[in-house]
Amino acid sequence: MAVELDLGALTPNQAARRQRVIDSAMKLAAVGGYDAVQMRDVAGEAGVALGTIYRYFASKDHLLAACQVEFARAEQRRLELRPTQGDTPADRVVDVLRRATRAQERQPQLTAAMVTAISSPDPAVSGCQREVTAVMAGVLAGPMGDIDPKLKAEITRTLSHVWFSALLGWVNGWTNVGAVGDELESAARLLLRDIER
What we know:
Blueprint: H1 12-32, H2 39-46, H3 50-56, H4 60-81, H5 89-106, H6 108-118, H7 126-141, H8 149-171, H9 178-192
């Protein structure tokens, strides 16, 4: 099992270097996808030594999975700035899901690279997988409102699995990017159809 980096223990300069590495990897992935993210190129883009990257990230997949964490957190902040629309829990959840998937659709190369990395069996990725799952749970739980906490957790977990599965299907060419939102809406409406306001 990989040792996880304590981000709170980083000095401001270390945190800034780590963020430059993430930003550089995201920039390269947005243009050329997963294959365009080569550690030497990331180091050059970030203005750091190659060894610096490996202080923070054990592998390319670990780096891109950390990018997924950053992307998810940024999207969560954007979603929180605009109130959720809809009269029912299903309508509100669908609103959030549609807005979140549009952000992914706008950057297909980056999204595909991050989904590929977060799917990796690399032990260094597991912490990022947990973080993304927690962010997704937060994004999905709020719009459901005041429903039974156990039911909310089960619906959130199921929607997270559908979301990931739909993204994986798109990345692997089984479906198109627009189908991700459709799959999520269908699942949300099925899971929440019996819950009133």
